[in-house]
Design brief:
- The protein has helices at 3-15, 18-55, 57-77.
- The protein is mainly α and 79 residues long.
- The chain crosses the membrane at residues 26-47, 59-78.
C-alpha cells in the first residue's frame, strides 16, 4: 500500500462519509489506470513506427552503415 492510497483511505476514515470515500477511491483508481492507458497508446504507436522501419529496413541499414564508416574515418583522421 503506497502513501497516496494511505492518504486516500485516511481521508475516508476521518471524514466519515462513504460517498466521499468512494469518490476519492474512484479518482485514485482512475489516476492509477491512466498511466497504463497512455502506455498502451504509446505501444500501439511504437508498433506502427516499427512497421514503417521494417518496410524501409534495407535503406536504413545502408544509411546507418554509411554513418558508421563516416564516423570511423573522422576518428582515424582526427577531425
Amino acid at each position: 500500500m503506497g502513501p497516496t492510497l494511505a492518504a486516500v483511505l485516511s481521508l475516508y476514515v476521518t471524514t466519515g462519509s462513504a460517498g466521499r470515500g468512494a469518490i476519492l477511491a474512484f479518482v485514485y483508481s482512475v489516476g492509477l489506470g491512466l498511466q497504463f492507458l497512455v502506455a498502451v497508446i504509446g505501444f500501439r504507436r511504437a508498433l506502427k513506427a516499427f512497421g514503417l522501419a521494417r518496410c524501409n529496413a534495407r535503406g536504413m541499414m545502408r544509411f546507418g552503415g554509411a554513418v558508421l564508416v563516416l564516423v570511423g574515418i573522422l576518428q582515424v583522421s582526427g577531425i
